Every structure is written in structure tokens, then in C-alpha cells.
From TrEMBL:
Family: Belongs to the aldehyde dehydrogenase family.
Origin species: Saccharopolyspora shandongensis
Keyword line: Oxidoreductase
Protein name: Aldehyde dehydrogenase (NAD+)
Keyword set includes Oxidoreductase: yes
Keyword Nucleus found: no
Length: 479
């Protein structure tokens, strides 16, 4: 182990770029208005300081927003030719690009993710989703759902805090392309970029009511999905809340898609290029502080290479810089909330109690804010909580296997099924393993690759329905 002979000087991005305002209002029927709910306080998880007050919706605001979305659906959006809808989507995509720096800094302030991730992943991919779906808006007749597929109506959409603007894009772009209108509730702890997106809708001249943004807590999400004026519900979040929503919409005739939790296996066979695999493992679990539903949180390593791989992994993880999300050198930022930090801490403690071996990166942590050092557990068994439950943090659980069949059996031994990774030199083994794995996305010799053309979604308790690509259009069409 060679310790780095030199230190990185701080390289902070300016927070001025975020154009942070002291308060934000909700967006209904094309206007920013005060909501009837208790205002939310959005904080910076890296410093615990207050960023802004955000007015939040009441149940009657949900009703007003759904009615506005219905009017917009009937009077303008559903009757507008697809080629005209496309122009708005292209405009929105271009405006996201023009305001990319502002959005990236604001996202890092509100969420805690490193600026290099919001700048290089979240915001460009959000723009890419609008570009991709702009292209579909006038070609829906060629998507394989009949010559003139119809929209559903009003979409009620609820998203989590881990990729605030990107999850918004995954939801709003296909809904609008297909001719639906939208009422979206961002997560309580990360509402800010959704409200700047609302400004972008105004800038793009989007007709009033086509997009409505209602900040609020879980009760507003529940009121939105239960509203009788909603025709389609799209939810991304925890499996627990997903089940509640499924019960709430049962029998209502609403179309439903759920993108829920995961506990992905990242499988390394003995013939894998180890240095490359280490990069993929690190990206798989430490990207976005591990707050990724498809994170490669279970590392399955062939026994014969386990010691060597673990050693290489520890050397690599030691070099990850944890700290100020606005520093361009930061690899791992802040945990999004005190609540999430205590959940991670509690699950990691269960790993100790159940006999796994914990290794923690010796990196220094900032004194303020919510931070958790990158952690690798080895000697993990299938029965342990850290092998079964989603930690949603920078914690990797390493298990071993002897034969390919055992790897597949262990990988599939989970109630989830969102993603998986395979590391091997052999193409035939990649194809064989990908066929056996019960996961919506299987990456081979890479991990956490996202593209709007590729459908994303789960099996089992990871949910149902697909987002992205041609398959993702189905969720927003009456087919
Ligand atoms: P969560 O508690 O399920 O929250 C998700 C969203 O639902 C938030 O906007 C939340 O509002 C809202 N909500 C809470 N209770 C609700 C209810 N009863 N009815 C309707 N909406 C309600 O999830 P989270 O803890 O924020 O996010 C982490 C989880 O999301 C993880 O399990 C992760 O795997 C999953 N996730 C999945 C994907 C995917 O694509 N499959 C992507 C990202 C995250 P509040 O913010 O006020 O709580
Ligand atoms: Mg915040």
C-alpha cells in the first residue's frame, strides 16, 4: 500500500451558481402559488444549514392541481399534434442544458451528492430523457402499440430524494411525450430542482396545467395517488410505500408502475479482469453514496480470488475522497438526511452483531453534516440482514461462491430483482448468467450505466413496469 505522496487542494464549485432563493413556491396551472400545507425546510445535508423554505401542498391543493391537469389534458395537450408536443420537449431539454450548472450546484446543495456526479450524470441524463422522448412524441404510431395510441389522462407521480431531477425527468418526459398531463410530488428533503424545473416549463411556454409540482410530505403523495381524477400512477421509492400505493389504487382502474428497492448482486468470476472489476464494484456501491436502488450492494466473488480481490478493493476504496459535495475532487458526498444516516448506521451495526467483518476506509470525515465512511463487510452469509436488506448507503457486503451455479442461486436468493452485474472474460458465461439472473437490468463488465433508450425496471419486490426506451412508453399509453 503506497500512501498518496501529495494532497488535493480544495476545488470548490461556487454555490452562487445555484441562484438559491430564500423561499420557493409550488407550481400549479402555470403559476407559482402558496400551498395550504405546513412549509417544508430544505437543508443542506453536508452542513445541516437551512437552504430554503418551500411552501407545501394541502389535500385541497392536490385537488386543484389534478383539476388543472385535467383541463390542460382535455383542452390543449391531448389534442395537440405529437410534432407540436415534441417542440416543447426539445425546448425543455435545451433549457436543462442551458441551466445545467445552476441545476447541478442546486442538486448537490439540496441532496448532498458530489458535484461531479450531479454535473456529469444527473443533469445530462435528465436532459437526455427529454431529448429522447421529444423524438418519440410524433412517432408513437411506430412504437408497436397500434397506429394511433392514445394517452391515459392525468398522471400522478411520486419520486424519491436520491436522484431528484433525474427521477423527475424519467417520469415527466414519457408522460408528456405520450400526451398526458402531470401532477408530481418531489421528495420532502429534495424539492428544489423540481421547482427550478417548473421555471423551465414556464420559460419553454408550456401550456398551463400540463405540469404541476406539489412539494409535500408522504401524506400528499398518498392523497395524490388516491385522487379519483388521476388516471395513471407512477411511483419510485421504497417497497413498503409501493405496497401501500398498490393497495390504495387496487380496483380503481388506474394504471400503475412501481420502481422500488433492490439488493443487486455484482458477481465476479475467477477469470475477471480484477482491476477493472474493482472499478466497477466501487462505482456500483459508492456512486451517489450508495443511495441507488440498483446499487451493486451484494458483491459475490469466486472463492479462489476472494482474498486478492478484497485486498485490491480496500486499497482502491482508501483513495475515495469523502466530504464537501461542492468540491470537484469529492467522490463520496453527504448522506441525504439524519434519518437515512441512522438507518445505515443501524444496519451496519447488525453486520457486526451477526459476525461479519467490517472494514472502514480511514478517510477523515467533516465535523458537521451527515457522513458515513465507505465500508466493506466480508465474511457475509446469506442469512445476515446486511445480505438481505437494502442499506441504501455506502456499505458493501461481500459473499463468496465456488461454482457458477452457486453464484446464480445466491444472486437470485432475494425478494428483489432490479439489477445485477457480471464480471468475466468469457462471453458465453455472460450470456448464460444473464439468462439465469432474475433482474430487470444485467450489466456485464460494467455497472450503473444509464441511457434513456434502455428500459429500466424490476422483478418481484423491485416493482413492475419499465421506464425508458420503447418499452417505457407503454406505461403512458392506453394499450
Ligand atoms: P419512500 O419513503 O418510499 O419515498 C418515496 C416518495 O414517496 C417520497 O416522495 C415520499 O415522500 C413519498 N411517500 C411517502 N409515503 C407515501 C405514501 N404513503 N403514499 C405516497 N407517497 C408517499 O422512499 P425513500 O426512502 O425516499 O427512497 C428510498 C427508497 O426508494 C429505496 O428503497 C430505494 O431503493 C427506492 N428507490 C427506487 C428506485 C427505482 O428506480 N426502483 C429509485 C430510487 C429509489 P417524503 O419525501 O415526504 O417521504
Ligand atoms: Mg435538502
Amino acid at each position: 500500500m503506497i500512501d498518496s505522496p501529495w494532497e488535493y487542494a480544495p476545488a470548490p464549485e461556487s454555490r452562487e451558481i445555484a441562484n438559491l432563493k430564500p423561499s420557493y413556491r409550488m407550481f400549479v396551472d402555470g403559476e407559482f402559488v402558496d400551498g395550504g400545507g405546513e412549509p417544508l425546510k430544505s437543508i443542506n445535508p453536508a452542513t445541516e444549514e437551512l437552504l430554503a423554505e418551500v411552501s407545501s401542498a394541502s389535500e385541497s391543493d392536490v385537488d386543484i392541481a389534478v383539476r388543472a391537469a385535467r383541463r390542460a389534458f382535455e383542452r390543449t395537450w391531448s389534442t395537440m399534434p405529437g410534432r407540436e408536443r415534441a417542440k416543447y420537449l426539445f425546448r425543455i431539454a435545451r433549457l436543462i442544458q442551458e441551466r445545467a450548472r445552476e441545476l447541478a450546484v442546486l442538486e448537490s446543495l439540496d441532496n448532498g451528492k458530489p458535484i461531479k456526479e450531479s454535473r456529469d450524470a444527473d443533469i445530462p441524463t435528465a436532459a437526455a430523457h427529454f431529448f429522447h422522448h421529444a423524438g418519440w412524441a410524433d412517432k408513437l404510431g411506430y412504437a408497436g402499440y397500434g397506429p394511433d395510441p392514445r394517452p391515459l389522462g392525468v398522471a400522478g407521480q411520486v419520486i424519491p430524494w436520491n436522484f431528484p431531477l433525474l427521477m423527475l425527468a424519467w417520469k415527466i418526459a414519457p408522460a408528456l411525450a405520450c400526451g398526458n398531463t402531470v401532477v408530481l410530488k418531489p421528495a420532502e428533503t429534495t424539492p428544489l430542482t423540481a421547482l427550478v424545473f417548473a421555471e423551465i416549463c414556464q420559460q419553454a411556454g408550456l401550456p398551463p396545467g400540463v405540469v404541476n409540482i406539489l412539494p409535500g410530505a408522504g401524506d400528499i403523495g398518498a392523497a395524490l395517488v388516491a385522487h379519483p381524477g388521476v388516471d395513471k400512477v407512477a411511483f419510485t421509492g421504497s417497497t413498503e410505500v409501493g405496497k401501500q400505493i398498490q393497495r390504495s389504487v387496487a380496483g380503481s382502474g388506474k394504471k400503475l408502475t412501481l420502481e422500488l428497492g433492490g439488493k443487486a448482486a455484482n458477481i465476479v468470476f475467477d477469470d475477471a479482469p480484477l482491476d477493472q472489476a474493482v472499478e466497477g464494484i466501487v462505482n456500483g456501491i459508492f456512486f451517489n453514496q450508495g443511495h441507488v436502488c440498483c446499487a451493486g450492494s451484494r458483491l459475490l466473488v469466486q472463492e479462489s480470488i476472494a482474498d486478492e480481490l478484497l485486498e485490491k478493493l480496500r486499497i482502491r476504496v482508501r483513495t475515495l475522497r469523502v466530504g464537501d459535495p461542492l468540491d470537484k475532487n469529492t467522490d463520496v458526498g453527504a448522506i441525504n438526511s439524519a434519518e437515512q444516516l441512522s438507518k445505515i448506521t443501524e444496519l451496519a451495526a447488525s453486520g457486526d452483531a451477526e459476525g461479519a467483518e467490517r472494514w472502514t476506509s480511514p478517510c477523515p470525515l467533516p465535523e458537521k453534516g451527515f457522513f458515513f465512511s465507505p465500508t466493506v463487510f466480508s465474511g457475509v452469509h446469506q442469512s445476515m440482514r446486511i445480505a438481505r436488506e437494502e442499506i441504501f448507503g455506502p456499505v458493501l457486503s461481500m459473499l463468496t461462491f465456488r461454482t457458477p451455479a452457486e453464484a446464480i442461486a445466491k444472486a437470485n436468493n432475494t425478494p428483489y430483482g432490479l439489477s445485477a452485474g457480471i464480471w468475466t472474460e468469457k462471453g458465453s458465461r455472460i450470456l448464460w448468467a444473464a439468462q439465469q439472473l432474475r433482474a430487470g437490468v444485467v450489466w456485464a463488465n460494467t455497472f450503473n450505466r444509464f441511457d434513456p433508450t434502455a428500459p429500466f425496471g424490476g422483478y418481484q419486490e423491485s416493482g413492475f413496469g419499465r421506464e425508458g426506451g420503447r418499452a417505457g412508453l407503454e406505461a403512458y399509453l392506453d394499450v
